[in-house]
Design a protein that fits this description.
It contains 13 helices and 21 strands. By secondary structure, it is α/β, with parallel strands linked by helices. It has 3 domains: 121 residues, Cobalamin-binding domain (Rossmann fold), CATH 3.40.50.280; 233 residues, tm_1862 like domain (pyruvate-formate lyase- activating enzyme), CATH 3.80.30.20; 80 residues, OB fold (Dihydrolipoamide Acetyltransferase, E2P) (Beta Barrel). Helix 3 links the parallel strand 4 and strand 5. Helix 7 packs parallel to helix 8, helix 8 packs parallel to helix 10 and helix 11 runs parallel beside helix 13. The protein is globular and about 65 Å long. The protein binds 5'-deoxyadenosine and iron/sulfur cluster. 5'-deoxyadenosine (5AD) binds next to strand 15.
């Protein structure tokens, strides 16, 4: 009897792919288990975007190799690292049995039927048509609308691991959405490396595909309560998307627009295809259409050649935009990327010191922006119990992690309106309200200082 355990690293794309693989395993009659100890098949869905997740995979595979010498155990590597020579070397070293690239995950059944080593790295076209069964008892789901990336940011390994952009047909997207709705999903996050160029693969409009703005409106009329999407590329951002967000009630007033750097010089070296001014124009358009927008970004600090002046420009751009939150990364030189080959890495100490200053800036702004919700009523999707089971946890339309004490009649997961009573840079503490708008006080009578969330910042 096969018992499988999947460990997922990296982005939501990987989570979606892991879900796809899980559903294939289940349809093969394989049991899913919650730990390595219970499993005789362990699959790692890997990430290669920075050095750290690669190191984690390496150390985990080291442990699994020891485990393999003690009992029957099949180990598989999937995801972005599997597609790279670097990952294949690691796989050989740690005696990985199954190696499957991100485009080949439909080969899992074949891999398991074969006794012995199985490697598959080709991209299978059927992947785009495959509709995974909806998740069970979940209020949120991901929906991939495209795979791969046509950009060539000099630091990024993704175009190598996931190949060129392929948009899924609107027909498949809407069919998958229907199944999610049927399973009770209330919030869907549309996924792509660069959703703004949906329907335009390698510069060509794909016959029969709408624009991303049109797709948002189509998804918005399906009856789903909330729609989010990630990630946008500023180069392909068009104002009709901001307008579609504003005019489609189900689309959350939330935009994640990675800037990477506030310095036009650094952006040029990153080959981001926009400069500081152009980026700020997009932000202006977004704020014009969606005055209440919650803005997230991604920032890389310590890109090769980044001077203190360049970094100051990132800090000043942060102030100019006033982001609600940011995912911040130290530049990681990835073999196979142009910046790894052509540029010299900055000293570690310079990079970490800049990251610390940026994190401080982010915390200040998150607190300041979160304060604008104090005393306000917000819509929150509560997905289940918090770390402390007297509370439910979830997130707002703007992706604020939120916890709410249970009160009689309000103990189940669902979408509710709650009143924000306390904010930190990381979290809202809120309470349920009744139909008259009165706060429903929990039996506890007060909110303990730190009723921890089981997961701090919800990744989109
Ligand atoms: N080093 C650090 N951060 C990176 N990212 C992508 N490649 C690298 C790298 N080599 C970050 C970018 C991207 C996010 C998903 O990961 O900010 O938006
Ligand atoms: Fe990487 Fe740029 Fe593609 Fe994003 S858009 S995955 S940063 S190459």
């Amino acid at each position: 009897m096969t018992k499988a355990h999947i460990i997922t690293f990296g982005c939501q794309m990987n989570e979606y792919d892991s879900h796809m693989v899980q559903s294939q395993l289940v349809s093969m009659g394989i049991d899913l288990v919650d730990s390595v100890d219970e499993a005789n098949l362990v699959l790692l869905n890997t990430c290669a975007v920075r050095g750290k997740p690669v190191d984690k995979v390496r150390s985990l595979l080291g442990k699994l190799r020891i485990e393999k010498s003690r009992r029957p155990l099949v180990v598989g590597m999937m995801g972005c690292l599997a597609q790279l020579e670097e990952g294949q070397q690691i796989a050989r070293k740690f005696e990985v049995d199954i190696l499957i690239g991100p485009g080949a995950i439909l080969d899992i059944p074949k891999a398991l039927e074969q006794n012995g080593r199985f490697w598959s790295l080709h991209f299978r076209q059927e992947l785009h048509d495959y509709i995974p069964p909806p998740p069970q008892d979940k209020l949120q789901a991901h929906l991939t609308i495209m795979r791969g990336c046509d950009h060539r940011c000099t630091y990024c390994i993704v175009p190598t691991t996931r190949g060129p952009q392929v948009s899924r047909s609107p027909d498949h997207i809407l069919r998958e959405l229907d199944m999610l709705l049927g399973a009770g999903v209330q919030e869907v996050t549309l996924l792509g490396q660069n959703v703004n160029s949906y329907g335009i693969d390698q510069g060509q409009r794909v016959a029969g595909t709408p624009s991303f703005a049109e797709l948002l409106r189509m998804v918005g009329s399906s009856g789903i309560r909330r729609i989010k999407f990630t990630t946008s590329h500023p180069m392909n951002f068009t104002e009709d998307v901001a307008q579609a967000i504003a005019e489609t009630p189900a689309v959350c007033e939330f935009v994640h627009l990675p800037v990477q750097s506030g310095s036009s010089k650094v952006l040029r070296r990153m080959a981001r295809e926009y400069n500081r001014e152009k980026y700020l124009e997009h932000i202006d358009a977004i704020k014009k259409w969606i005055p209440e927008v919650v803005l997230f970004t991604d920032i890389i600090v310590g890109f090769p050649g980044e001077t203190e002046e360049d970094f100051q420009e990132t800090l000043s751009l942060y102030d100019e935009v006033g982001y609600d939150n940011a995912y911040m990364f130290i530049y990681s030189a990835r073999p196979g990327t142009p910046s790894y080959t052509h540029f010299e890495d900055l000293p570690r100490a310079v990079k970490t010191e800049r990251l610390e200053r940026l994190i401080q800036k982010q915390k200040d702004w998150s607190l300041k922006q979160n304060r604008r919700f104090l005393g306000k009523d917000v819509e929150v999707l509560l997905r289940g119990d918090a770390f402390n089971p007297d509370y439910l946890e979830g997130h707002t339309r703007g992706q604020h992690a939120t916890i709410v004490p249970k009160v009689p009649g309000f103990e189940q997961a669902g979408i509710y309106t709650v009143r924000v009573e306390q904010v930190t840079p990381h979290q809202f503490n809120a309470k349920f309200i009744d139909a008259q708008g009165q706060v429903l006080e929990p039996i506890l009578g007060h909110l303990p200082e730190a009723a921890a969330l089981s997961s701090p910042l919800p990744m989109l």
